[in-house]
Amino acid sequence: xxxxxxxxxxxxxxxxxxxxxxxxxxxxxxxxxxxxxxxxxxxxxxxxxxxxxxxxxxxxxxxxxxxxxxxxxxxxxxxxxxxxxxxxxxxxxxxxxxxxxxxxxxxxxxxxxxxxxxxxxxxxxxxxxxxxxxxxxxxxxxxxxxxxxxxxxxxxxxxxxxxxxxxxxxxxxxxxxxxxxxxxxxxxxxxxxxxxxxxxxxxxxxxxxxxxxxxxxxxxxxxxxxxxxxxxxxxxxxxxxxxxxxxxxxxxxxxxxxxxxxxxxxxxxxxxxxxxxxxxxxxxxxx
Length: 287
Description:
Layout: E1 6-11, H1 14-22, E2 31-34, E3 43-46, H2 48-51, H3 61-67, E4 72-74, H4 78-95, E5 99-103, E6 106-110, H5 115-118, H6 121-136, E7 140-145, H7 148-155, E8 163-165, H8 170-177, H9 190-198, H10 204-209, H11 212-231, H12 261-282
Parallel strand pairs: 2-4, 7-8
Antiparallel strand pairs: 1-6, 1-7, 2-3, 5-6
Helix pairs in contact: 4-6
């Protein structure tokens, strides 16, 4: 049986890159997609030029404006991003039918067995990036590995517009992961990273060599077993190529603080009506 070949393709600063492609005057400048800095709202995306100022998605726009007074703020254009996303996913499906979308701008591709058509996993990564930039004008980074966890980890290592290949032999995978901070492991956020640090688990190497019971004391037996598997690059999950939508939601951000109960009630009523309409249209009910 051939070894699995999984690609994780992640578009580079997607929303901002689309805006810079469509508006050449924005290129090379700090561009922030989101609410204006004088209004309540958050950053949806930041160009790499803006990221040098510490700006990132979900940051309050006012804070982004404080950090980068000369930044260019533009409102998001969801329809345009969705259109480019469809083009990108069209490229994916030319190489494999096994595509697991993670969001509008990233996906896993299982290209196992396609080497006799398109070449190795690395060669396919190069071809996919070439096709994406030729057809959309924006770039992507790709991780090539034998499972989803390693591929996603790798795609973030050589951004923007890069390809990172993870070794396939167990010993080489262990060495590849050892020097990384534990925060690079899938699912280890800031809170868990801080908890692990209290026990001296700072690098993946620590998870590989320290006694398992020490880790269990911090995160429990199940959590310890999961982290130990990731530390050695073990991930047996298959791609999920279709998902059942389980929720509908709507949201509204007030430009300024609102203390009027009537105004809030009107907005909530409108949001509920929108959700109800969407549910009826899809033939579903809320529980």
